[in-house]
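User: Is it possible to get a 3D structure for a protein together with its bound compound? The compound here is manganese (II) ion. I've pasted both below.
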Amino acid sequence: MECVAGTTLGEFIIRQQSAFPDATGELSTLLSSLQRAARVVNREINRAGISDVLGSMEQLNVQGEEQQKLDWFANERFKEALAARGEVCGLASEEEEGFVSFSPVNTRPGKYVVLIDPLDGSSNIDVNISIGTIFSIYRRVSPLDGPAQLEDFLQPGCKQVAAGYIIYGSSTMLVYSTGQGVNGFTLDPSLGSFFLSHPNMRIPERGRIYSINEGNYQDFPTGVKRFIKHCQEDSPEQGRPYSSRYIGSLVADFHRNLIKGGIYLYPPGTNLPDGKLRLLYEANPLAFLMEQAGGLATDGSTPLLQLQPRTLHQRTPCYLGSRYLMLQLMKTLVEA
Ligand code: AHG
Ligand code: MN
Ligand code: MN
Ligand code: MN
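Assistant: Yes, that's possible. Here is the predicted structure of the complex:
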């Protein structure tokens, strides 16, 4: 079905902004910059096999991971797009050791900072499986007339002004929230525009999917092991056993569970005492979306959005999902 009469992302952003008479339009411009960069990254991903963007940069990033060419490409495109307009005074990225300060554009100081996982699911880039971009936006807390400061980036997730992701999947979608629910937009590649396709996304209260890298089972805390056994037990009246689904791209696992209902788990382990996921670039923005969609998000004992970050690249155990499944998990963790 043609969607030419539908609402574009640009129109939607402006409509949302007009509900706030005091809004200056800077957040709207910032979101527009993100969608523009997303379209460029999307184009490159779509032709990855025929352009020279597959494979490794042959260097490690600050996370100690082998940086892929597309990790770098996406990082540069989002950085350029955000630096060019002036709404943002700085960016922190999974791919950069320290935060990057942007010079004011037309002497106008940027009010916002952006934290980004430019390319999520690096291990899936070369094998044509869904990957994503995750972003998180905060209002700066440092004085407007100076450069961005570390404290602007180390704010608890509950202070996010907006968060979202782009999923480069069988179709490309941008899903975001400014704290008034979650809305999803699908890119029409022939028109080059995102159209509202998933208004007011709500995660089902229950759900029958659990998503975890079970290869690490031996390493999981007892409570997580028990929860997995619970998911696998036969209980037709409760719809168990549940289905195990794990793509290994957080964005894709999250997106599926958001639509179908389910739970995502990345627990701590012996080698990774805080798990693998980064609080600022992965856990917090997705926790914001999850709560906005009616689900829950914790590190196992504290709501993720309440955690006070200490460092830019800090990791955290991460559990996100449907309310019913999350309450069951939390009960199991407490009892273990
Ligand atoms: P990134 O590609 O941004 O470094 O993120 C990788 C993350 C996330 O996308 C994924 O869910 C998780 O790593 C997978 O980890 P395991 O391979 O340990 O399951
Ligand atoms: Mn990475
Ligand atoms: Mn990631
Ligand atoms: Mn990444």
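The chain has eight helices and 15 strands. Residues 209-335 form a domain with the D-Maltodextrin-Binding Protein; domain 2 fold (CATH 3.40.190.80).
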